[in-house]
TrEMBL record:
Record domain GST N-terminal: where: 4-83
Entry keywords, A to Z: Transferase
UniProt similarity note: Belongs to the GST superfamily.
Protein name (Swiss-Prot/TrEMBL): glutathione transferase
One example of a Gene Ontology biological process annotation: glutathione metabolic process
GO MF annotations, alphabetized: glutathione transferase activity
Lineage: Eukaryota, Viridiplantae, Streptophyta, Embryophyta, Tracheophyta
EC number: 2.5.1.18
GO cellular component: cytoplasm
UniProt xrefs under InterPro entries: Glutathione-S-Trfase_C-like, Glutathione-S-Trfase_C_sf, Glutathione_S-Trfase, Glutathione_S-Trfase_N, GST_C, GST_C_Tau, Omega/Tau-like, Thioredoxin-like_sf
Enzyme class label: transferase
Catalytic activity, reaction form: RX + glutathione = an S-substituted glutathione + a halide anion + H(+)
Residue ranges of every copy of the GST C-terminal domain listed in the record: 89-272
């Protein structure tokens, strides 16, 4: 596969795009990066993803692969010479795929998975996001019998909680912001409990579930600034996981620097009159 053409259509602050960038880098796949202007989408993007019209899109030898988790799975299946991102055990692989897919469905925006209802409509219109439906049972807590284990359903339940509470946090104000901060921190603590003493969410090796959450390495500083708290004090194991991930060349090269994301968030708030 070394001589094939690989192009990635992406938008730099996208947590979904970061998944694909990291997966490609982790596999050692060389690719051409093409930045998209999501306010004026390119003809290439519209041609390659005519249904959803959103990024990221991987173009492999002229054929598009859409939706970030689908793309990561495709990368894992096509480029098998390097370490596999998904578990080799069939049932563990099924769990990782199934539940990580619900992380995707629970997200509320292609680029801004942490926006509030106040600005959801204009932002999603700008990004061309198609509405989604979340199953009612998604919000049920995980089975207590799984507490402290590496159960994929447990992990992704708390991924979703972090996404939701973080989304509400950086657009909040006053007492509302305080409540959202507490919810976000509690979600991180739950996630920290799932991580336990493991190096990564999938166990001893960096993999698919870690990639599903990798964008938080870019966005956590934004949540800290708007929520006025310190992640390392509140959840030291989560920060240790982030630092561990950032030591990987595939992550440090393609996960956006947190200060840059924070500046981007400030611009979004200003644009929509939320200051």
């Amino acid at each position: 596969m070394a001589n094939t053409e690989v192009i990635l259509l992406d938008f730099w602050p996208s947590m979904y795009g970061m998944r694909v960038r990291v997966a490609l880098a982790d596999k050692g796949v060389k690719f051409e990066y093409k930045e998209e202007n999501m306010a004026e989408k390119s003809s290439v993007l519209l041609e390659m993803n005519p249904v959803y019209k959103k990024i990221p899109v991987l173009i492999h030898n002229g054929k598009p692969i859409c939706e970030s988790l689908n793309v990561v799975r495709y990368i894992d299946e096509v480029w098998k010479d390097n370490v596999m991102l998904l578990p080799t055990d069939p049932y563990e692989k099924y769990q990782a795929l199934f539940w990580a897919d619900y992380v995707e469905k629970a997200s509320t925006s292609i680029v801004f998975p942490f926006i509030s209802d106040r600005v959801k409509q204009p932002l999603t219109e700008m990004q061309g996001k198609v509405a989604y439906n979340t199953p009612l049972w998604w919000d049920l807590p995980p089975n207590p019998a799984h507490s402290g284990s590496s159960s994929a359903p447990d992990c992704t339940f708390y991924f979703k909680q972090v996404f939701d509470s973080g989304r509400k946090l950086w657009m909040g104000k006053g007492e509302e912001k305080h409540t959202r901060k507490e919810n976000y921190i509690e979600s991180l603590r739950m996630l920290e409990g799932i991580l336990g003493d493991k190096l990564y969410f999938g166990g001893e090796n960096f993999g698919y579930l870690d990639i599903s959450l990798i964008g938080i390495c870019s966005w956590y500083y934004t949540y800290e600034k708007f929520g006025e708290f310190n992640t390392e004090i509140e959840t030291p194991k989560i920060i240790a996981w982030m630092k561990r991930c950032m030591k990987r060349e595939s992550v440090s090269k393609y996960v956006v620097e947190p200060l840059k994301v924070y500046d981007f968030a400030l611009q979004i708030r200003k644009h929509y009159g939320i200051e």
